[in-house]
Amino acid sequence: MTALLGICGSLRRASINRSLLQAIGLALPADAALVLHDSIEVPLFNSDLAEPESVRRIKDAIAAADGVVFAVPEYNYSIPGGLKNALDWISSPPVKSPLRGKPVAIVGATSGMSGTIRAQLHMRQILLFSDCQVLSQPEVLIPRAHERFDATGALSDDSTRLLLGRFGAAFVAFVKRHTNES
What one-character DSSP code corresponds to residue 17? Predict the structure, then answer.
């Protein structure tokens, strides 16, 4: 069984990106499962501080997963500050980061037309530091997400469902390929 971890870059419980991760979990092949990490709420990064328990939980969850899917909202053409802060904690110290060499995928949904394209580009740049293996294709950039998910957060769009099925299969194959190479 391929164990995937979903991390939502939004702090909102009703985030469309959290709904996107749930839809991805439903679209995965039968030999894979996605568990959502509960929260990225951590104190502001300060290397003078001891590592907080909330950071240890995220690091442990990443270390235990075969691969990680980050759902990234776009705020002011970039990733949310809370996600960047969490990544700063996760990547410290660099040689012990659980992201080092980990297979990762980046997805995103927004009510606008860009589908989080800028935020995903910034996320890729940030993940270079951790030497992650980032899936390139298929890209999951969901524009007009309010038209694709219903009021409860359930996916209601068939074309998006097909994309997420292709994405899930590609990411699981990517994770397995990476695992076999290690």
Answer: H
Please tell me the distance from the alpha carbon of residue 125 to that of residue 108, in angstroms, as a whole number: 16
User: Helix (H, G, I), strand (E, B), or coil: what is residue 49?
Assistant: coil
Q: For the CA atoms of 11, 12, 15, 18, what is the dihedral angle to 10 degrees?
A: 50
For the stretch 50-91, pLDDT in tens is: 999 999 999 999 999 999 999 999 999 999 999 999 999 999
Which tokens go with 125? 């740049």
Range of the domain at 80: 2-181
Instruction: Say what the pTM is.
Output: 0.96
> Cα–Cα distance between 128 and 2 in angstroms, integer?
24
Residue 160's nearest CA partner among 134, 139, 181 is 139
Domain count for the chain: 1
Helices marked H in the chain? 16-27, 53-64, 81-90, 117-128, 158-181
- Closest alpha carbon to 174 in 80, 94, 102: 102
What CATH number is given to the structural domain containing 97?
3.40.50.360
